[in-house]
Amino acid sequence: MLSFIIKRLISGLTVLFFISIITFFVLRWMPGDPATLSLGTEGTPEKIAELQEVMGLNLPWYQQYYHWIQDLFSGDWGSSYVFGEDVMTLIIQRLPVTLLLAAVSMVIVIPFAFIIGIMSALFKERWVDYIARSLMQLGDAVPQFWLALIFLVFFASKLGWFPVAGYVGFDDGILASIHSVLLPAIVLAIGQVGPLIRIIRSSMLSSLEQDYMLMTQVNGLPKTLAIVKYALRGASIAPLTIIGMQLANMLAGAILVENIFALPGIGRLLLMTVEQRDLILLQGMVIFVTSAVVLVNILTDICYRLANPMIRFGGNHE
Amino acid sequence: METIIEAEELVKEYKIKKQQLFNKQAYFQAVDHVSLQVRVGQTVGVVGESGSGKSTLSELIGGLQQPTNGSIKYLGKDISSFTSTEYRHFRQNIQFIFQSPKDSLHPFYTIKENLMEPLGIFKKHQPERILLQEIHDMLDQVYLDESILNKHASEISGGQAQRVAIARALILKPKLIIADECVSALDVSVQAQIIQLLKELQQKHQMSYLFISHDISAVNEVADYVMVMKNGQVLEQGMTEQVLFQPKHDYTKTLISSSYLLEREG
Amino acid sequence: MSKLRQHKLFSLGLFLVLVVISLCIVSFFYLPQDPNVMNTINRFQSPSKEFLLGTDQFGRDILSRIMISSRYALFIGLVSVFLGAVVGIVIGALAATANGWLETILMRFIDGLMAFPGILLAMMLVAVLGKGLWNAVIAIAIFMIPVFSRLTYSLVLDQKNQLYVKAARSYGASKCRIIFKHILPMILPRLITQFSASIGSAILIESSLSFLGLGVQPPNASWGLMLSESRQYMLTYAYLAVPPGIILMITVLGFNLIGDAWNDSIVSRRMAE
Description:
Chain A is mainly alpha-helical. Chain A has helices at 2-29, 34-39, 45-55, 61-73, 87-122, 127-141, 144-158, 174-209, 211-218, 223-260, 266-276, 279-307, 309-312. In chain A, helix 6 (127-141) crosses helix 8.
């Protein structure tokens, strides 16, 4: 187990290294260098040259990269040109909104996906299954930002059940906060539901077919009890693996949804960053988001390994 | 007689996948210090059970795998020091026939396209008319009708497919053909025909064979010289009659007694 | 899954895609109204005989704009997936044939690309390259690389162990020849399936980027851009929100269904063998 964790950490670190390389090169070597951009219209050639010197842009790339990584590890993520604030501070300010949004939508999507996925596996090739699969297809095809607009028009504006826009901070009570992100969270949840149902359904199907289900039938356990006890446990493990992936999807969805519902989270900050071409802030956010995705993937892999007896004793499956 | 292939002290090791990250790396020796020679017109048989390392040995000799240790000389020159022209020459003159003929033909190509492949690599400057003529000649030699040319591997029988594979190996006029279990997947009656064909072609073209098989009676029919392999090592070798009828090693005796060779020879 | 159902889903997908393709083709010969002409008198017309789907905040005909947009959607979808697929297939095939360090580097690089949440990578590239159609194409193409690399990688690894490849090596076929002439034809069906399924998601990303103002730029039309432009008027004129979203969904659904049905038929054929 320990060797698995070490291996997984090493491969995760390599991925992070490549992410940092990709980010570094995309943001440094393409048109528009940070010095020119940060000075904007005030940029005279002398001033730009001076700033380039200060920012170390004249150094060879590997030295620049090395300094940059050093700064990242020491917590100095630079400061934004647009906001004039520390990148870390900006991210941490916005993080709770996005986390709350993601958490609420997870709370919505997981039970829903489990019920539909399990029903669809138990009644395979019957109408429940067909409906579930149609829902999956629709869920995959519906554009999230469009769904957000429709919900906004209908539930918030026409019916007035939710605020049209804006976020209520924790100071006004946690319930008010949740209420303010509920509608966007539902939209996000709909975007996640397709892949989750799919994996729950297929892992439920395979655990229903597995030997230990046969064993329970031989041992005379009633079928429903067996389903609940064994198959459910087996099936609940597999979705763990894609929760990391779901996190990536959810962050992507959050970019759209936060902008439509005017929620001051990471996604909204990101769009502003891109519109203003605030490269230092963008670089920090990209590293932050992708590292989060990679770390969550490592954690879920390890949990999966711990939780699943078959793989745990199986030796060298990767 | 001229020596085509001379292998000395061949070793092939595989890494065994580690169970634990910090375990010492373990190795498995598939071929363990094996030497052999193949001369012009000679047929060398290698017998042994599956897992004895004989297939690995054949792929080392044929240049499909690199040995961990040891040397292979083709016409007196070490193949690891080949220039690209020399390697091309080597590649043209050593051909393979594999166990499952149908799998060794490309499933999406017609028989004609399959036969055209080696010609396209080695004789691409010649006009297609001449190449087609060569293909037709070759079909005659392996007793196949030309109606087969537009079929796919899945549409012909195993025996036909093996004849196609032989034709493909032969079409480049090689000096040595490595036949790796080339009859084991076929019906017994077809086996005899293919062996007959191989012998006939050898007479006609003065080729050598490296004939790998677990089937002692097949080896007995074609080989002049026999090597018995177990666990990557050669236990016994010598002229066919000597090894198969006066075996020295107990393992060889067991192998022979488990085949029907003895019954047939009385 | 039953053959019949597979067939039905495929037909449905094909039908939806054909609807969009014909919309696109027709747009070159006939448009109900000029999609770009602004006319303040005609602002916010509800659907009528003259304007089948109504008009937007500038008085432009929504149906005509939807038809024009289909060109961009299909163009960006096809071109970006094609570019991404070509690069991805080359990287995947290279990684599968190269041994040792090159394989590791290539595949970790792909893992790295994969860790970028879909639209984030595209946004990062747009931030650097600037807004616009071609930059959106490049951004989406790069996003498509990892899927194709991984698929090609695993398919080629699988084929490499087949006997016909060993046979090809034995009669002197070069690595290049083996990859392109022998292995590629074998794995092409799976790649085409992935191609179709990816077009759906490429069109989704295009519309999302355009919606965020980072893709197709005004006065050109794109379904995402249309939704973004009329966003502030939707609370009053709800009909504005419907048509672009529906057509977008139809397009994506169509490509996804075709891809899924193909994939299922390949899988069931494999299992039958």
